[in-house]
Amino acid sequence: MAHSRQSSELPMTRHDVSEAGLTVPPAGLGVPRSQTEDIEVRKSIAHFRGSFVGEHNLVPPSSGATLRRHPTIRDRIAPLSEGWRDVGVWKSAFVEMIATGLLCYLSGLIDTSITNFDTTHGAAYVGLSNVFLLTLLIMAAGPGSGGHVNPTITFATMITGLTGLARGVLYLIFQTVGAGVAGGLLRGSFGTVEKSVKYQGGGCFRESGSVTIWQAFVVEIASSFALVFIAFGVGLDPRQQKLFGMFMGPLAVGCAVGLTSFASAGFAPGYTGASMHPGRCFAFAVSRGEFRDQWIWWAGPALGALLFSIAFHIAPPYHSAPIHSHNG
To answer: Rounded to whole angstroms, how far apart are CA atoms 226 and 304?
Structure first.
């Protein structure tokens, strides 16, 4: 991570600095006034600890601000009113709505096209397309929202203290709205109800003779846990940016989705495998006008994220191992 601020970056508000995990010293305590004012004003709205893009060390050491190495209890139990009136947060949520809608719509078209190819390599095509689709959307939406583009990621960053309550709730609402709009667009693109039902609205279905409800639920939990674990490790750990550069995060997260979707896409005939994205399955349900098994696609990722949060709090990414002396 570079410690220098780029001239193209927008300045920060005190609320944004707080959400990013920084402590801002009062003006006049050995800090040049110009630097203090620069911290007090607006900054890039994507700069918060749960963002997949941008620098996590937002303020140079000379400013006197310090980065807390791990979210505290106070960070996780923020005042309920904090951030709701921040226009930047609402704009970020709007970007998430657009990006999530595009992801769901294009994903539905891609899955339908792969079905029409009548190929035995469908799982590979699904995984590869997810790599490119998600990577590009994270890079496109990242500067404006942090590039979550998935309610599972947003929920996971909320319960681990990386995303504030207001931002997280607004993201979840706008992502769901975007997915619903995408479902309507898919329905219109298919042209007829029969065609939409034929292609299962674009994906996310389970035929009763393929796998049981509980099998699908277990696959969803485990795959979502794997996705969040990898995404946090490669995209939200500041040490990764320092080692590999900030541009590797979106690509690595895209690869994580591609790998986990490929792993279960061919699990059983009549079953599309793990979704790990409740919005996608909601969009496809809207498209085909049938919401059977929706609870699997929502409860599975949520439980996977909750299990990950337990591991996160037990061994946070900033924990340090004790150094033992060979002489002792």
So the answer is: 8
